[in-house]
Design a protein that fits this description.
The complex is a heterodimer of chains A (about 160) and B (about 120).
Chain A (H helix, E strand, L loop, with lengths): L3 E5 L2 E3 L2 E3 L2 E7 L9 H12 L4 H20 L4 E7 L3 E8 L7 H5 L8 H5 L7 H8 L2 E7 L3 E9 L2
Antiparallel strand pairs in A: 1-4, 2-3, 4-5, 5-6, 6-8, 7-8
Chain B lengths: L2 H8 L2 E4 L11 E3 L3 H7 L6 E4 L4 H9 L4 E4 L7 H9 L3 E4 L4 H10 L10
Parallel strand pairs in B: 2-3, 3-4, 4-5
Antiparallel strand pairs in B: 1-5
Classes of the chains: A alpha+beta (about 160), B alpha/beta (about 120).
The structure holds adenosine-5'-triphosphate (ATP) and magnesium ion.
């Protein structure tokens, strides 16, 4: 099931206090029925805020690919979405096996997806390249045996 | 091309109606690999053609704002998938045709992939 919590964090920018909207979701390992709910919820939030459809789609694709990677490769994890007035920052973190060779993993077509994921239509080795293409900023912290943290930023203008 | 024309052409059965059924659709994509769909059709595809039947098909369509999914080879999504699609405003239909024939007929009728569109 999906767990979502909303909390506020106060930050100061240009002397004026703004409160970005923060949401957290649990991502469950190998749960292909609910995989994508976090991304779907984020997409709806941005729509409600009136963000341009083209920008929402980029954020949705990037987050969905990272969410699915956490489901398939990362043994599940957490998603955190922070909406600022000018951008959305999405963090997907898992405590799975980590990525031994990140440069290799970024290559289009390279995949270690297991059969169960392939049966679900994944394993083209296009997820990470898709994420890179659709984000304005991308940072991947990964360590073998510890996990992977994907931080994505999509700007609204 | 309207969705009802498309259904007629493919001898397809409409499983879930959507409010977009009167819209003129021009761009389609077909694949059983969801990341391929997201890589090569991310911008404007309105119709997704696939032989893959699972909840992630609907999710992928949702992320891409795809309006109609055509399931080929007679595949029928289960009730849960149909409700999910309905909830997201995505129309569903199923055709007995193969992927190749389905895509060929739609192309012949004027639909295009993203690279050849407009
Ligand atoms: N969160 C993760 N934890 C561990 N390994 C990962 C993670 N994300 C990606 N990888 C590794 O990087 C490879 C490439 O990932 P990518 O998302 O590009 O392709 P894929 O998930 O295999 O297939 P696709 O995304 O096309 O369905 C994966 O096959 C896997 O080996
Ligand atoms: Mg992937």
């Amino acid at each position: 099931m999906l767990r979502s919590a909303i909390r506020s964090r106060t930050s100061r920018e240009g002397g004026c206090a703004i409160e970005p909207l923060v949401r957290q979701y649990e991502i469950r390992a190998n749960d292909f029925t609910h995989a994508g709910e976090a991304s779907s919820s984020m997409k709806k939030s941005l729509s409600r805020l009136g963000v341009k459809a083209e920008v929402i789609k980029r954020a949705a694709i990037a987050m969905y690919e990272a969410e699915i990677n956490a489901v398939i490769h990362g043994h599940g994890g957490m998603a955190e979405v922070t909406v600022f007035p000018e951008k959305v920052v999405i963090v997907i973190e898992d405590h799975g096996p980590g990525i031994p060779d990140l440069d290799q993993a970024m290559v289009a077509g390279w995949s270690t997806a297991p059969d169960i994921a392939r049966e679900m239509g994944f394993g083209a080795g296009m997820g990470l390249p898709n994420i890179k293409k659709n984000c304005d900023e991308l940072k991947i912290d990964t360590k073998v045996g510890e996990g992977t943290k994907v931080t994505m930023e999509v700007r609204f203008t | 091309m309207k969705v009802c024309d498309c259904a007629n052409l493919l001898n397809a059965k409409i499983l879930v109606e959507s409010e977009n059924f009167e819209e003129d659709l021009q761009i389609a994509c077909g694949s059983d690999l969801m990341s391929d769909v997201m890589a090569f059709s991310s911008d404007e595809s309105q119709i997704m053609i696939t032989g893959l039947v699972n909840p992630q098909t609907i999710r992928t369509a949702e992320m891409l704002d795809v309006k109609v999914i055509i399931f080929v080879r007679g595949k029928v999504p289960d009730e849960t998938m149909q409700r999910l699609a309905e909830d997201r405003g995505i129309g569903l239909m199923t055709t007995p045709l193969s992927m190749f024939t389905c895509c060929g007929l739609l192309y012949e009728a004027g639909l295009r992939g993203k690279e050849a569109a407009l």
